[in-house]
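Posting for a labmate who doesn't have an account.
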Amino acid sequence: MALKLAIYGYDTDIGKLVFETLEEQAIKVDELYPLSPLSGEYDAVTLDHQNYFVSPIEEFDFSKANVALFLSTQDESQRWINVAREKGCIVIDNSHLFSGDDKTVTIVPEINDFDVKKAIEQRLVIPALAPSVQLCLALSALHDEFGVAKATVTSLESVSELGRLGTETLAHETTLLLNGMAAEHQGFPAQLAFNLHTRMGVLEENGYSDHENAISNEVQRILGDFERGFEITCIQVPVFYGHTMVVNVDLEDQATVDEVEKAFEKSQYVALAPKEDVLSPVADIINERQVLVTRLRKEKQGVKSFSFVIMMDNTRRGEAISCVEIAKLVSNNI
């Protein structure tokens, strides 16, 4: 069916990447409705050399669109999602409002695309969180080949996981500190610049944060439960873009390092870095479409235990591309 796409949050960082992705993939959008929270905003958005005038969401008739992509804040999503659904739109919500919710369809398009039919029935789907996408793409290569019995992850997450607030706060604090002034960390528990936080999100009863619990929920829903469990610790680091994760896995079947390398190489979503390279988010993963794997090694304590480091552009690969791929899935199945 023709894609008639409404986008709320077209001017956010992710919104801009979504437009770039639509053009790069030459996706045919029959109608485009960029939406704004402001009335009287006489602006236009360009896609594939065509201008589309911005509409205030208060006045927009969602029955004109068949897919609505929400790149807004959680309070705005909560306000407008049901309005769009009641008008027949299938909503793709990237605000993280429903992250970790067992009742809401969560999709990593490369892995569980079949769940799109359930999403269409519910008229609601959410892309998995960027860290979940990163882990699912990497772990699926091993899970398909050998089975994963257990995974333990330390996730070093850039401030862009928190959207524009994170990147703008880090930039602002850095400028202040370099000029001898005190940092301002409004909305954060501590200074972001030249610092790290040992927890992301609100601590819950099981000792994990809500962010960690949401990732754990999504990974196991998409890949299935691991026999001996999945554990993740998320640390906020003063990096603008790109997540880096240290992953330890126990496989179900025995394997050599060469066999694990070949499993990664078989995946179109993963790339192995040259062993001698020292990698960084800035130099090696920004704008890249694959998850980069480095420092693969076998742990001494068992023939089935391996560790490696994975890196990914969380904004473009983890969010924007996932949103566009889900929109394509929905459009192809309605």
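Reply:
Got it, the structure tokens are right above this. The mean pLDDT is 94.
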